[in-house]
Amino acid sequence: MQKWKRSARLVDMTQQLLGKPHQLIPLNAFAERYQAAKSSISEDLAIIHEVFREEGSGLLETVSGAAGGVRYIPMASREGAEELARDLCRELENPDRILPGGYLYLSDLLGNTRLVREIGRVWASVFHNRRPDAVVTVETKGIPLAYSTASFLGVPVAIIRQDSRITEGSVVTINTVSGSSKRLGSLSLSRRSLSEGSRVLVVDDFMKAGGTVQGIVELMREFHAEVIGVGIMAETQVNERLVEDYASLATLTDVDVKSRTIVVEPGSLFRQGGFLYGTDSDG
Q: Is residue 281 over pLDDT 70?
């Protein structure tokens, strides 16, 4: 097999790393693929790592030893996260989003693949140190955000249903009460969707009082799973909330249906004394 030119090797190696986030790739695998010495592979990886670091798109983590290798850790810079939050706030302040009853139209945002991808990168950056085994969300609007986040973390997605389906097999179901309207409901998750004892990251599009998130936490207890974090695209400002440990990108401080005005500010992820970006630890 003909040896690869370095330029081609760098391009292909970058693609290999981007396609397998958080997955350890042995140096031998690269050496055999490109018919190159490990020293040359190490030099290539140093170049890629420097580019990732300067661009704020991630970093390479090297594991030494016989079973070692390198893994790509996707990251978003704080500046990038702040810019994303500002863009999201501007989008949410559009008065055309106001629907009857004071609800907001969000489907176009969740269909924006660029926006959804960048939100997933931010949540992966914030929570990766907590080592989640899975990303969990509730149907239906949170699904795009969950899959985006999971793709950057290299973990599976578990989707909680609001009704059980025969195609889900054996399910665990709990009853819930909405934090704002006190409306009764239920949440169900297939036993095959999540391994018992998993560390899960909850991702959703919108939160009011937090009744849905609290319901997810209670459902996770049935799986003996630990909720290691909660990422919310946007929240409303309320006096009392059922959950405290969460990170949001945007906070709606006022929605006036009569004057058709929406006031939005960056979310709890950026607030002083709150869940600060970049300060997360193994919790």
A: no
Describe the chain by its helix, strand, coil percentages, rounded to 5.
40, 25, 35
Task: Report residue 241 as tokens.
Answer: 């909330």
Give the pairing type, strands 134-138 and 199-207: parallel
Length of the chain: 283
Please report the sign of the dihedral spanned by the C-alpha atoms of residue 13, residue 14, residue 17, residue 18.
negative
Nearest CA-CA partner of 14 in 48, 62, 50, 59 = 48
Tell whether the model's pLDDT for residue 280 goes beyond 60: no
| Residue-wise DSSP of 61-97 | EEE-STT-EEEEEE---HHHHHHHHHHHHHHHT-GGG
Half-sphere exposure of residue 254: CA atoms within 13 angstroms, side-chain side: 6
Quote the pTM value.
0.90
C-alpha span between 138 and 185 (Å, rounded) = 13
| pLDDT (tens digit per residue) in 38-55 | 999 999 999 999 999 999
Q: What is the pairing mode between strands 199-207 and 58-63?
A: unpaired
Which sign, positive or negative, has the C-alpha torsion 40, 43, 48, 51?
A: negative
Domains, the chain, ordered by start: 6-74 (1.10.10.10), 78-270 (3.40.50.2020)
Partner residues linked to 25 by β-bridges: 70
Please give the Cα distance from 99 to 43 (Å, whole number): 56
Q: For 67-215, list the strands marked E by DSSP.
A: 69-74, 134-138, 157-160, 171-177, 184-190, 199-207
Residue 203: how many other CB atoms lie within 10 Å: 28
